[in-house]
Amino acid sequence: MHQNSQNSPAYLDFNKNSTFASSLRTERERRNQSWLSETKTIEKLDSVFRSKGSTDKDILMHKELHHLSRYFYSNTNEIRIDPCSIGKVPNSAPAANVTVMAVSGRRKIEVPDEDSSFLLRGQSRPLKPAAIHRDQNAANLACKIYVAMFEEPAIHSRTKRFYGGRYLRQCLLKYYPTDRTASVAVANEIGVLDRRKGQCGYNFSLPESFHRQRHPCMKVSTGSILSSPLMDLGDFAATPRVGKAIDFVYRMSLFEKPMVELGGKKFVVQDASSSHRADASSLELSDASMSAAIIIRGSCGLNVCDTSDADTSTFNIKVSDDGTPLVLLRSVSHDDSDEGQKSKDEARPYRPSFIRAALYVKSARQEAQFQSLTQSIKGGSARSSTKLKADELLQPTLTLLSFANSRRKDEQSVLLRDLRFGINHIDKGQL
Asked: Is 217 left (phi over 0), alpha (psi -120 to 50) or beta?
């Protein structure tokens, strides 16, 4: 039933505010045009720039921050709590470090250059096995070893109940072509957050009897009625998907990996030539995972009581001079020399606030790359997305930071006049 506007309450009549809203809109557009006119003559800014009053130490820390963000941007990092000892005293009290280490490369986004169903004509990609085992004495023991992944329910450590969460575990699948059977080998060393003594106990959902048996390697989707339900060597291939290019930007894989079933358990077979992120738990480095690791390591303060053992002991946590906990970043570099390849393990402590700042810079780079790729696809071609376009999207933020970090009166007045940012509203110590 239509209600007369005259009977409407006064707070639902927005016509009285139209003049005020129009004046606010005009003022906002005027200040925006003024800001654009002031900044249009500014050349391209670098991520690290020197301003008046900055010392060499400030510039060095700024460079280190962006170097760390590029390290996080190009790698998939894992965070753990590792046991350690304090000093060189053999009988020192046990301690723990929050350690961050790169476990694989960053995931690459595969995007077709055109939309529609051209992928229907694409050829399947054979999956590369991790190893090939040949046995001349027993032909039935010859097998191909593939990298696979399976889901495992996350059981609560105290209640022993399942609340819907699942882990993605990585394993090795041994396929025997003679009788088309397969077996699974799961590593005993699994990814857990707390690796201190008494904290790593975990029981797999796959029993030992499942590992020792050879099961018929069944296809999950046969495709047609006449095809065999058992896997052949030619079936270990990634088949192309059908979809638009914008669909693949949102983390949809361009090729679909084959799925097999062994003894009622489903496994996704992957290619061994590229690295995979098999663990989708809280081990991946983020602001939340780092906070959780620090809380677990020192839930009762800097000197916490560890009850994992029968005897009550005290964990002494290594902190900085002002009491801030430190996060140890480990990086492995390979040195190719005449004597052969050598791996050099380096570790460096960082404050959590410094790592959080590097994670913010990394997320800004990822968002700029995502927006550049999306705009290029909507424009007609994914090939036009380049690093330069992604860097251009970061220029407005760098310009704002340049004005905010400047000590010149004219730039401070422009910032206050157009963006309403006063000098007291910006913490220069965090820039």
From this structure: beta
Q: Is the pTM of this model over 0.85?
A: no
Q: Is the dihedral of CA 87, 88, 93, 94 positive or negative?
A: positive
d(Cα 83, Cα 95) in Å, to the nearest integer? 6
| Pick from 56, 52, 55, 54: nearest CA to 408 | 52
The per-residue pLDDT for range 256-295, each reduced to its tens digit, is 889 999 988 999 998 887 655 544 455 788 888 888 888 7
